[in-house]
Design goal:
The protein is of the alpha/beta class. It has eleven helices and eleven strands. Helices cover 42% and strands 18% of the residues.
């Protein structure tokens, strides 16, 4: 679609919610206003597109949301959009409402959906990476990740206070089913004795020797941060195995869970979401489609959706070394 033919942009949030999604919607809507485009909010992800749950948005409709967690448009996992019939209904909604292009704020699943839809109906779209996991290729950071890290270290700091008071070993599970970014960074940021992530092959022997080392060096409490997707075992299994090996240890488990998804977005996330929201609108007006707007080395970069979905962000080996050096 040529530059001049885009008059109305529809925006939706889809998949797992992340702090900063509201900030991104606000940026999209205000950028549309700046460039004299209409913006339409689509509620509940792809379900809203299928069921025609739309509302026109203007610069004032997005006031007071820059600092609010979650997404005021609501998010959804839509089974219907996975079907041809569902996507046909979505296309009808787009035609009836004269939507020329879409901005999809979500994770790789949402981008996969957008890509299938694009192949079938050719509606231009740009993706904005909104997920706390930071597991999307083509951007150094995803929206929500920084906030989740800050929430995690605040929680771990509190747990450490009680761990130190009772000579305890705490196993703390943080989010990340496929990726260890939250675990590795929150573990370093909170001074964890050990950090277990799916990208690194761990062993119980190494874990036990790390805990032993910490005891010998005079530590009277330890925190072990475990990513949800750790392959050696889940946080309870790891805690049980450790208790069997060290029957004298007072071991506790905390699963941080959904608190990592909520809360007011950090300044980093607000700035990121603001920049990516504007970049997505500008990208569409310049004729870009089937791409994701991301930030690399602090510059806006567009990556093909195919790459964003298929490739993976690698864990930085230097960070693993940092964690090892500091745990003594
Ligand atoms: P996230 O975007 O957080 O990774 P999901 O993986 O749940 O979340 O994907 C969000 C939604 O995207 C799904 O509920 C579905 O509606 C849509 N989607 C994902 N994959 C496909 C696909 N292959 N075809 C059509 N729609 C899809």
């Amino acid at each position: 679609m040529s530059k001049s033919s885009i008059k109305t942009i529809g925006v939706l949030t889809s998949g797992g919610d992340a702090p900063g999604m509201n900030t991104a919607i606000r940026a999209v809507v205000r950028a549309c206003s700046y460039y004299n485009l209409n913006s339409i909010g689509i509620r509940e992800g792809y379900d809203g597109l299928i069921n025609n749950q739309l509302s026109k948005l203007d610069a004032r409709s997005v006031k007071y949301i820059i600092n609010r967690g979650g997404t005021f448009l609501k998010s959804a996992r839509s089974d219907e959009f996975r079907t041809k019939e569902g996507r046909m209904k979505a296309y009808q909604t787009i035609q009836e409402n004269e939507i020329d292009a879409l901005i999809i704020i979500g994770g790789d699943g949402s981008f996969r959906g957008a890509s299938v839809f694009y192949e079938e109906y050719g509606i231009p779209f740009i993706g904005i990476p909104g997920t706390i996991d930071n597991d999307i290729f083509g951007t150094d950071y995803t929206i929500g990740y920084d906030t989740a890290l800050n929430t995690a270290i605040e929680a771990i700091d509190r747990i450490r206070d009680t761990a130190t008071s009772h000579n305890r070993v705490f196993f703390i599970e943080v989010m990340g089913r496929d990726a260890g970014f939250i675990a590795l960074n929150s573990g370093i940021g909170s001074g964890a004795q050990d950090i277990l992530i799916p990208e690194v092959k761990d062993s119980l022997e190494e874990l036990f020797s790390s805990l032993e080392k910490s005891e010998i060096s005079g530590k009277n409490s330890s925190v072990v941060v475990v990513a949800e997707g750790e392959e050696l075992g889940n946080v309870y299994e790891l805690a049980n195995a450790t208790k069997e090996h060290f029957p004298d240890y007072d071991i506790r488990v905390t699963v941080l869970g959904h608190i990592q998804r909520g809360g007011s977005p950090s300044c980093m996330d607000r700035v990121l979401a603001s920049r990516l929201g504007i970049a997505a609108v500008e990208g569409l007006t310049e004729g870009k489609t089937n791409v994701m707007a991301g930030l690399q080395s602090n510059k806006i970069v567009f990556t093909s959706i195919e790459e964003a979905i298929k490739k993976h962000n690698e864990i930085d080996k230097e960070l693993i070394k940092v964690a090892e050096i500091l745990a003594r």
